[in-house]
Amino acid sequence: xxxxxxxxxxxxxxxxxxxxxxxxxxxxxxxxxxxxxxxxxxxxxxxxxxxxxxxxxxxxxxxxxxxxxxxxxxxxxxxxxxxxxxxxxxxxxxxxxxxxxxxxxxxxxxxxxxxxxxxxxxxxxxxxxxxxxxxxxxxxxxxxxxxxxxxxxxxxxxxxxxxxxxxxxxxxxxxxxxxxxxxxxxxxxxxxxxxxxxxxxxxxxxxxxxxxxxxxxxxxxxxxxxxxxxxxxxxxxxxxxxxxxxxxxxxxxxxxxxxxxxxxxxxxxxxxxxxxxxxxxxxxxxxxxxxxxxxxxxxxxxxxxxxxxxxxxxxxxxxxxxxxxxxxxxxxxxxxxxxxxxxxxxxxxxxxxxxxxxxxxxxxxxxxxxxxxxxxxxxxxxxxxxxxxxxxxxxxxxxxxxxxxxxxxxxxxxxxxxxxxxxxxxxxxxxxxxxxxxxxxxxxxxxxxxxxxxxxxxxxxxxxxxxxxxxxxxxxxxxxxxxxxxxxxxxxxxxx
Length: 496
Known about the structure:
By secondary structure, this protein is of the alpha+beta class. The protein has helices spanning 20-30, 45-57, 89-96, 108-121, 207-217, 233-240, 250-258, 341-352, 382-388, 411-421, 473-480, 484-492, and strands at residues 33-36, 39-40, 64-72, 75-83, 131-132, 143-146, 168-169, 173-178, 182-187, 190-194, 197-200, 222-229, 263-266, 273-275, 280-287, 292-294, 308-321, 327-328, 358-362, 370-375, 398-403, 428-435, 448-455.
């Protein structure tokens, strides 16, 4: 595993980055990237390796991988294949532009919080119009493949799990434009169905599905589409989250976060404008009146998903790519998928406008189904009232509310707080039915779920809490000596 280089600040520019390659250069120089010369994915060695790395280092501590050669479908294929490039807290911070010298080795939560604070400090994000560049200036147009020469199976896209229905492109961003709805850049899995055919799998509550159905309902027979692969960290974060509203251009939002317009280029076979600095562009048409079976696929909960009896697919017309393109594989449900601090900052900013007591909001992606909320509690029953306002979020099956002194990004601290401050009665509320996440394996009816709110704030006497409420031992220590932790860092920092 690479270790941090000395003097890297002088040769590695600070993010945000204009391409995945720039970002990968930065994190490899920073360290905690493993290079593997070759690995046999027909035996699922890469899958097994990622499980064990996560077991050892945790979601925020596992290194990124760069694999030079991989065995797929009996053939050794050239990479590089990129895995877990957004896993570490330090890598997240690098992606959003935190100065490398400000990161602390091994303090994964603290490094993530530095990324989040940078995003919060940016304030309200103003979208920036994209910048169209000439075809010859676009790195993604270095190689053009058309007609019978197209074979998407020539690229090292993987089958991640033995129970998956074949090989999938699972980090592709689908670009769609609708004259009434606007633009959508969304991350959806794509089953490889043949040399020139891939599945397109937006779920029914996602914008990609809404766009395609709107076109079909207007009588259109095909939808022009493009799949971009290997986007920079911010574009991929916008495509993979709900930061943008329906119809809002995720590329313009990405430009706002980056402080610089995203360069775009026109497709070979349509007027679609797509990011120019990506690794690969797959262009094609989606038949709107013909669907096929799709899946199953190992989902984000860590369980095998259900197959779809009917789902869209795309006929490939052109593939363009950079020389020796980076191929990113996400081990869904195993590795951390994308940079989350921009979306978290935007959510906190938006929710705080009508919930001023809100001090923190996070969806811990290593604990799918949970939402952690912190509040500045000023009155009885406030925690339940706040949590009820988040019932509309399908992902939130277990909503835990804590006081503002609890670090909601430290799951150990959150769960310790539940054990210490929560009384199931009256500090819980069951919601018998609400919107559920469509991939939840426990749901009898997909898209619906019961929910629980856990009030793990200090309970006031009016809430059947003790009076007075005991202080934490740590509070007593800081009151005794407010400088204690600075003193320890100065004298004993070499041990920390």
